[in-house]
């Protein structure tokens, strides 16, 4: 890159909103196509490869691979785990965001840091922590065992691991918004005689509903795709404790093409979530502009 | 009857928001809480609304303990500075909110709610906008929606937090007059917070001047303007300007004038503060009797003429204000050296703790004739 290009880049940045000069438009084309190429190389191509690989041996093989009882069980298990973990985090996220933005209490900054913890702790470590606490010889494990409840290598363990990993999504989406909105409207509702529940459902919730949905969708995408923490606590029993990502991993060792078929299913679920998110953003934008 | 606030205290950490505040408000009165930001007026409003609790003190309404009722059951209407309208509800839904959220035994029928919402919107002259959303309204319209919403619960006390703070000057003046009339027709006891002197003096039956968590003075606009109780009230409301002055050995010395004073009870009083209002400084034809002043600038502001005057013995120039007619009689221009006569001075006497304990307004005589500087008016805050 010569000095001219650099100057052009700077003038492109400076001239935002002004009629672009010829060199500025060159820079724009270069930057945009570079970004698109990186995206294509790193995201679109591999994603396309998964679907291509999945269908390489034809439709019938594909349908056969995903309709295997173990694969179907994995789909069911993944959906079950997400169906439990996401609502739990929805409630937790709302409660945490409310507490963080409406109250001052000792340990508030600690709570803020703890909410972020799952982002910084490796999922494998999270799984190990669960084993330590709920495993056969864990602190609580023996108590659960005495009451005939199996946590590790069973659904409860999978749910716990997923809840842990996806904990921050809803809360992190809500906290900045609720902070920006303040609590004046809640106070107004209070002086008008509304009860706590009514304030929550009629004033607070409508104001954060888009951010909440957005957080829930992100949380859901992550819950369905989670591998590391779930890997540790699952036990890998095909048809019993294998979620979709684990099933893909297992098939990958045994039956290469079937692994890609199941992987494409997982990718499809995630793409569906992303599509829904996009749709919501679009609708939200409409709502905000048009009112 | 009415509201009795006594000995209210509220601290936030090291900051004292309310320091022994006592105030009585009669039924139907329109009272302004006037003070700079941080003077405690909004804290008092929030405590009255039930959104905050005092550390000490009591509030009685017709003898009933108001602090024992939480905000929900207090029946106090509060209009926020930024209105706090519910953005996802229409104007009509906003106004109906307080009626809809009542427990079902006390909730009016849907048709009754609709009727009273219509009536309220008609009163605030917004009945044609009932299906709009707050985002589609102007500032002044939002403010009236907030007012209608607060009135829907038929409050026995209406609180307004900086009701015109977020509006532009033109709308502000119109709404001021409108709200004054509106209060007269409604008769609800109303307390409003403002930092704007003009607003408080123009609208309120009584003005409560607050500073640093304390009430400096309570009185009608005229009382406070004519007879400010403290240097703060004088500066803030009567535009009083400090000039150096002292009393010693039976003489009062202000600028370079000396008067013999009688009736000066020196007990408690250890220092005095002298204030002069802009409209009490007049140019005089009688030379040698006035104080020499140099005119630094002259501004013509809608019917009044304001001038800055540099005078010997003063670090800051004094502001003088005359109406156009007076100025035409004695026109002064920038650079002129004129003689001025001070028609009225206010002298505040403070004790050793710096508390104002006495004050006296007096008309300085021409020449050095003896004056009486008493009896002092005792100041009670």
Automatic annotation (TrEMBL), chain A:
Subcellular location(s) per record: Cell membrane
Membrane-topology descriptor: Multi-pass membrane protein
Keyword Coiled coil: no
Keywords assigned: Membrane, Sulfate transport, Transmembrane, Transmembrane helix, Transport
Domain annotation ABC transmembrane type-1: ranges: 75-277
A GO MF term: ABC-type sulfate transporter activity
Residues annotated as transmembrane: 6-22, 29-52, 72-98, 110-131, 151-171, 211-236, 256-276
PROSITE patterns for the chain: ABC_TM1
Gene3D superfamilies: MetI-like
Gene Ontology cellular component terms for the protein in this record: plasma membrane
Biological role stated in the UniProt entry: Part of the ABC transporter complex CysAWTP (TC 3.A.1.6.1) involved in sulfate/thiosulfate import. Probably responsible for the translocation of the substrate across the membrane.
Subunit structure: The complex is composed of two ATP-binding proteins (CysA), two transmembrane proteins (CysT and CysW) and a solute-binding protein (CysP).
Name of the protein described by the UniProt record: Sulfate ABC transporter permease subunit CysW
From TrEMBL, chain B:
Gene, per the UniProt record: cysA
Source organism per UniProt: Dyella psychrodurans
Domain ABC transporter stretches: 3-237
NCBIfam families: 3a0106s01
Annotated PANTHER family: SPERMIDINE/PUTRESCINE IMPORT ATP-BINDING PROTEIN POTA, SPERMIDINE_PUTRESCINE IMPORT ATP-BINDING PROTEIN POTA
Gene Ontology CC terms: ATP-binding cassette (ABC) transporter complex
InterPro entries: AAA+_ATPase, ABC_SmlMolc_Importer, ABC_transporter-like_ATP-bd, ABC_transporter-like_CS, P-loop_NTPase, Sulph_transpt1
GO biological process annotation, one example: quaternary ammonium group transport
Keyword line: ATP-binding, Hydrolase, Nucleotide-binding, Sulfate transport, Translocase, Transport
Enzyme class name: hydrolase
Protein name: Sulfate ABC transporter ATP-binding protein
E.C. number(s) listed in UniProt: 3.6.3.25
Molecular function (Gene Ontology), one example: ABC-type sulfate transporter activity
Record-linked SMART domains: AAA
PROSITE patterns for this protein: ABC_TRANSPORTER_1, ABC_TRANSPORTER_2
């Amino acid at each position: 890159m010569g000095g001219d290009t650099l100057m052009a880049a700077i003038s492109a940045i400076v001239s935002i909103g002004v009629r672009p000069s010829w060199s500025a438009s060159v820079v724009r084309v270069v930057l945009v196509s570079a970004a698109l190429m990186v995206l294509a190389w790193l995201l679109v191509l591999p994603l396309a490869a998964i679907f291509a690989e999945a269908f390489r041996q034809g439709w019938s093989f594909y349908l056969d691979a995903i309709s295997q009882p173990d694969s179907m069980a994995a789909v069911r298990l993944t959906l079950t785990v997400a169906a439990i973990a996401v609502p739990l985090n929805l409630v937790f996220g709302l409660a945490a965001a409310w507490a963080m933005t409406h109250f001052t209490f000792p340990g508030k900054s600690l709570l803020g840091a703890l909410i972020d913890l799952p982002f910084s702790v490796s999922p494998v470590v999270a799984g190990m922590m669960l084993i330590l606490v709920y495993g056969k010889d864990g602190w609580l494990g023996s108590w659960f065992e005495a009451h005939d409840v199996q946590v590790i290598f069973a659904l409860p363990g999978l749910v716990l691991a997923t809840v842990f990993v996806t904990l921050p999504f809803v809360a992190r989406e809500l906290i900045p918004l609720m902070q920006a909105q303040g609590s004046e409207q809640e106070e107004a509702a209070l002086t008008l005689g509304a009860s706590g529940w009514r304030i929550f459902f009629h004033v607070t919730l409508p104001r954060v509903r888009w951010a909440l949905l957005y957080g829930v969708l992100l949380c859901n995408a992550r819950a369905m795709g989670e591998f590391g923490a779930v890997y540790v606590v699952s036990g890998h029993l095909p048809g019993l404790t294998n979620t979709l990502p684990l099933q893909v991993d297992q098939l990958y060792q045994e039956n290469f093409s079937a692994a890609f078929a199941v992987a494409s299913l997982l990718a499809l679920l995630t793409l569906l979530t992303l599509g829904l998110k996009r749709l919501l953003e679009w609708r939200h934008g409409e709502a905000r502009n048009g009112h | 009857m009415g509201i009795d606030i006594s000995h209210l205290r509220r601290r936030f950490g090291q900051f004292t928001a309310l320091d022994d505040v006592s105030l009585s408000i009669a039924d139907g009165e329109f009272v302004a809480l006037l003070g700079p930001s941080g003077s405690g007026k909004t804290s008092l409003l929030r405590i009255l609304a039930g959104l905050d609790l005092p550390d000490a003190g009591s509030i009685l309404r017709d003898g009933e303990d108001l602090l024992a009722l939480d905000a929900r059951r207090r029946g106090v209407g509060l209009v926020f500075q930024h209105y706090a309208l519910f953005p996802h509800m229409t104007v009509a839904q906003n106004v109906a909110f307080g009626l809809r959220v009542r427990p079902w035994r006390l909730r009016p029928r849907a048709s009754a709610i609709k009727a009273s919402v219509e009536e309220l919107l008609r009163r605030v002259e917004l009945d044609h906008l009932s299906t709009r959303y707050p985002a589609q309204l102007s500032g002044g319209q939002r403010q009236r929606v907030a007012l209608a919403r607060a009135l829907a619960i038929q409050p026995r006390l209406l609180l307004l937090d900086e009701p015109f703070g977020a509006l532009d000057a033109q709308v502000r003046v119109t709404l001021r007059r409108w709200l004054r009339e509106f209060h007269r027709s409604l008769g609800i006891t109303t307390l409003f917070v403002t930092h704007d002197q003009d607003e408080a003096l123009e609208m309120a039956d009584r003005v409560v001047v607050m500073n640093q968590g304390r009430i400096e003075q309570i009185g009608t606009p005229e009382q406070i303007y004519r007879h400010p109780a403290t240097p703060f009230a004088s500066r803030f409301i009567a535009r009083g300007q400090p000039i150096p002055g002292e009393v010693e050995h039976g003489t009062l010395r202000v600028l370079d004038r000396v008067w013999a004073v009688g009736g000066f009870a020196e007990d408690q009083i250890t220092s005095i503060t002298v204030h002069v209002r802009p409209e009490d400084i007049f140019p005089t034809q009688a030379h040698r009797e006035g104080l020499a002043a140099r005119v630094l600038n002259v501004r013509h502001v809608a019917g009044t003429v304001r001038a800055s005057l540099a005078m010997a013995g003063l670090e800051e120039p004094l502001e003088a204000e005359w109406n156009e007619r007076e100025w035409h009689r004695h026109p002064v221009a920038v650079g002129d050296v004129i003689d001025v006569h001070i028609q009225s001075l206010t002298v505040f006497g403070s004790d050793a703790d710096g508390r104002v304990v006495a004050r006296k307004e007096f008309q300085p005589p021409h020449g050095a004739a003896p004056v009486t500087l008493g009896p002092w008016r005792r100041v009670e805050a």
